[in-house]
Amino acid sequence: MGFFNDFKTNLQGQYEECLAYKKLCENEGFNPYRDLKCEDDLYYVPFILSTSFKKSYGLFTKLLRGDIKDIYKWTISSSTSGDPSIVGRSKEDIDTLRRFVLEDEMRHKIDRDYECTFFPKAEDMKSYNRGIFLDKVCESYLGNIVDIYTYRDDTIHLLKLNNNKFEVDVQSFINYIQTHNGKNHRAALGGSTPLFFGTVIRLKENIKPVELGDKSFVHTGGGGWDGRKGNINIGTFIERWRFVEEVSNFLGIPQENFTDTYSFTENSFTMTGHYSKNYRDYLFHVPEYARVIVRDIKTLKPVKEGERGFIQVLNAYGTKSFAGASVLVDDIGEVVSYHRCPECGYEGMVIKIIGRVKGTEAKGCGATLGGDGVGNN
């Protein structure tokens, strides 16, 4: 894949097929046929705010690149505010997402003989609150991601659907960690960060720590570092270093065996990061089939290494049906390196995810970018 040429083709298609994005480009004096000549020009590509896909804004149909009848399904975010993002995807978009999730997983894959996760079975997650929206199926974006993961056939899913509510099977988790205690099995654990963390914090007051050993590992995903995800709220912000230290100490798994995956509904790929003791944080690798720009909160100019700002994601693939080629997320990132991971030697851009932008900063960003004006021009 040649990212720049493929991105240019994708952006030109989006420019022609999505009137809202074309008007945004015209307002900013940008034309992808004229102004996108080399990789450095990517910094000038107009972006759509991820919040523009919010249900309350009513713009998600205007951000399609074709007719509603041509989409395969609506994917919806796990909103904590009751105002989820809604993205219409084609079958090709879902297939591209599948390919990239599997590629990302293979890069960080660790063999395991046993597995438990604080996620439900994929079909349960996708079916939860599934419905028909504008004559198409609407289901969880995260559920679609989980459906792609290559779980073992005997994986223990600790989040169970009961009377249309998800409940954590805490006893199965206790049984799992005690069964493998002191045996140094290749035992995997993972899933939802707030559920995992909340369960460990409660259990450490009642049962003794275990020693799962250096062949075990922890892989989380789906966000929730603010302590909330969907209707889950553990009532506290989770610092990444604290999660790793608490879970590592309780389960007896080395900190270097922790990974986390970052994604969001308006995107077409995932990024996995490995934990660094030196940085006390996860270092996320930007894959070669994507680009990330971190923009200063006040000036929106690209930042230098070691600096923080809004995360902009450029997608060359997987956005055939919606205007997702250039999206600015309401997350703050920090550039660790533009060229190489200082810990593992990965060749490429490396970032840290600092967290969701504060309310006042989000309003300021909206004012700077014209708020929800994308659909009103």
UniProtKB/TrEMBL annotation:
One Pfam family recorded for the sequence: LuxE
Acyl-protein synthetase LuxE domain sequence ranges: 10-369
GO terms classed as biological process: bioluminescence
GO MF, any single term: long-chain fatty acid--protein ligase activity
InterPro entries listed in its UniProt record: ANL_N_sf, LuxE
Protein name: Acyl-protein synthetase, LuxE
Organism listed in the record: Thermobrachium celere DSM 8682
